[in-house]
Write a structure and sequence with these properties.
single chain; alpha+beta; Nucleoside Triphosphate Pyrophosphohydrolase; five-stranded mixed beta sheet; binds 8-OXO-2'-deoxyguanosine-5'-triphosphate
Length: 145
C-alpha cells in the first residue's frame, strides 16, 4: 500500500434544473449563503451524499430541503472523473443530473438567498463558483447547439 494513500473525495450531488426536459430554455442557478468564502457564488442546488445514501435519494432530499420542490431526474452531465463526476478542488467530487420541477415553485429556503432562471444564451450572467464553470461549459455545449 502507498505510504500516502489518497483520501476518497467527499461525494456531492447536484441538479441542473431546466424549465423543460424536452426543450430546455432556462437553467436554475442558486446563490450560496455559506461558508463566507463561497457566499455570493452561484451554484447548482444540491449537497453532500449522506453515508449509505444513494445518489438519487440524496438529490431528491437536497432539492426538497433547499428549494422546497419535487423534481424528476433525467441523465447526468458527464465530467472527467470516475462515474462521470466533476472535481470540486481535490476534496469533493460532484455528480450533476439534469432535472426538472414536477411539484412546487423553487424558493431559496435553505443555503441560498436568491434563485435565478438563466436563459440558455445567458448562462454566464452570474458569478458561478469556479469549479462549476467547466460544468456550465459542458451544459452549454449540450443544450445550446
Ligand atoms: N451543492 C453544490 N456544491 C458545490 C457546487 N460547486 C462547488 O464547488 N460546490 C462545493 C461547495 C461545498 O464545499 C461542497 C458541497 O457542499 P454543500 O455545502 O452544498 O453540502 P450540504 O448542503 O450537504 O452542506 P452541509 O449540510 O454540510 O452544510 O461543494 C455546486 O454547484 N453545488
Amino acid at each position: 500500500m502507498s505510504p500516502h494513500p489518497e483520501k476518497a473525495p467527499i461525494e456531492v450531488v447536484a441538479a441542473a434544473i431546466v424549465d423543460d426536459l424536452a426543450e430546455p430554455s432556462a437553467l436554475l442557478a442558486a446563490r450560496r449563503t455559506e461558508p463566507p468564502e463561497l457566499a455570493g457564488g452561484w451554484e447548482f442546488p444540491g449537497g453532500k451524499v449522506d453515508p449509505g445514501e444513494d445518489l438519487a435519494t440524496a438529490l431528491h432530499r437536497e432539492i426538497r430541503e433547499e428549494l422546497g420542490v419535487t423534481i424528476a431526474v433525467a441523465d447526468r452531465i458527464d465530467g472527467p472523473l470516475d462515474d462521470g463526476r466533476w472535481p470540486l478542488g481535490t476534496a469533493y467530487a460532484m455528480s450533476v443530473f439534469v432535472a426538472t420541477v414536477t411539484d412546487g415553485v423553487p424558493a431559496p429556503i435553505e443555503d441560498h438567498d436568491e434563485l435565478r432562471w438563466l436563459r440558455l444564451d445567458d448562462l454566464y450572467a452570474v458569478r458561478w463558483l469556479p469549479a462549476d464553470l467547466p460544468i456550465i461549459d459542458a451544459f452549454a455545449a449540450r443544450f445550446r447547439a
